[in-house]
Specification:
The protein is mostly helical and about 300 residues long. Helices cover about 60% and strands about 0% of the residues. GO terms for molecular function: iron ion binding; oxidoreductase activity.
Length: about 300
Amino acid sequence: MLPYKSIEAAAAQLGRNLTYAETLWFNYSAEKSDGVLACHNILFVCLIFSVVPLPFVFIQLLRSPFFEKHKIQPKIQTPAAEIFNCYKDVMLNLLFVVGPLQLVSYPSVKAVGIHTGLPLPSVGEIAAQLLVYFVVEDYTTYWMHRFLHCKWGYEKIHKVHHHYTSPIAFAAPYLHWAEILILGIASFLGPAMVPGHVITFWLWFVLRQMEALETHSGYDFPWSVTKCIPFYGGAEYHDYHHYVGGQSQSNFASVFTYCDYIYGTDKGYRCQKKALKKLQDGVNGGENRNGGFTLE
């Protein structure tokens, strides 16, 4: 809750007039507690999860040749009923696992210094903090993901996520409840190390969720803006991990590819790419598909 009774009082404290964004923030947050603001994350995550995958679902059900040529595993089509069941199961997880986790973790959010006050952070500050969050989460998740592919971790926890050998967007957070807790640690580590404004905290979870949905979409569109991001894995990169399945010891990265490259856990993927490239060159422009895995 903001410690100002009015916009004028806030301006006097800052020594300047509030910006338009700060005025909007004051009007929205002045009478809301910090706990309520921090727990907005579950609302945003549920909204993003419900809306962002819909275009991918529509494209899959449409089965237009224009879009199907970009499907990574074109031989596998998930029925509409299974897509709906996936959405239902994940939404239950979000409401009954992620939601309570947000509530009980609020003291930690407060303790590390995530704040709700004025002034609002600059665009540059938000961008710098988000970069730290992505890098920290990516590195931490890489090792957690490798652990989950050991025999015990996979059989007891991670095999739930690998139910879909050909991922669909709704299945991005299709996880065992224990994996949600494990990966929640990685997601919170960046904000704990470099705490910022709660708006940055919201934006981090929204962007990370959107990235995961796109990565699990099952489609590799050449016009995707994420292809401009250096070292970004993307849908094809992570799809290979699901395609190999439970025996996969490749492509563990959640966002970027540098960990897999440094620690040599992308060798299978790179060998597959080279083999498919050689096959493509050999058939002089024939279809570049092998076992349903697409080579760009």
